[in-house]
Amino acid sequence: MSELAFRGRCWTVGDYVPTDQIVKSARVFAPMDEIARHVLEDANPEFAGGVAAGDVLVAGRHFGQSSGRAIAAKAIAATGVGCVLADSFSRTFYRNAFEVGLPILELDGVRAAVREGDVLAVDVADGTVGIERTGQTLRAPATDPFLLDMLRAGGLIPMAARLAEGVR
């Protein structure tokens, strides 16, 4: 099992979830542990209190739209979720997720294929999503190797530090 592989409970949200619904504006200056306790509280009220390390958040179309605040991706990562899958991400959220080291996969049709509570086995590096309930395996388009290296390093800043030290 690679460092970019996760097995856990599926948590779902719908289409067009904006960053202000991931983290409310009133909370962005709170300590991260406080922010994490309120992630997605309107989109899926059970998520923040029930998510466990390695669980998988599954969204519909254009997840993370509107504001370009990286706090949304950081807050999701702070919940301990293993990765986020979505039919599509806003381009800004997509970039922010890799930069903060939050594993994501864009896979059209994933939201329709899963149910809240399903157990998923996800390997971000090879782009596979196994759904235990159905036995189905979904395959995402390949993620750029540079972005996978960024995730393995823990984000852009740790990757830059490693490169500066001559470590790959």
Describe the structure.
- There is one protein chain.
- The protein has one domain: Aconitase, domain 4 (Alpha-Beta Barrel).
- 32% of the residues lie in helices and 19% in strands.
- Helix 4 links the parallel strand 2 and strand 3.
- Helix 4 packs across helix 5 and helix 7 crosses helix 8.
- The longest helix is centred in the middle third of the chain and has 10 residues.
- The relative contact order is 0.18.
Stretches where pLDDT is under 50 for at least 5 consecutive residues are none
Superfamily (CATH H level) name:
Aconitase, domain 4
- In the CATH hierarchy, the third-tier topology is known as Aconitase, domain 4
CATH architecture: Alpha-Beta Barrel
> How does the overall form come out from the CA principal axes?
globular
Q: What's the Cα radius of gyration?
A: 15 Å
What is this structure's SSE topology?
Elements lengths: L4 E8 L6 H4 L9 H5 L10 H4 L5 E4 L11 H8 L4 E4 L4 H10 L3 E3 L3 H4 L5 E5 L4 E4 L4 E4 L5 H9 L2 H9 L4
Parallel strand pairs: 1-2, 2-3, 3-4
Antiparallel strand pairs: 1-5, 5-6, 6-7
Key phrases:
alpha/beta; 168 residues; globular
Concise synopsis of the structure shown:
With 168 residues, the chain is α/β, with parallel strands linked by helices. The chain is 32% helix and 19% strand.
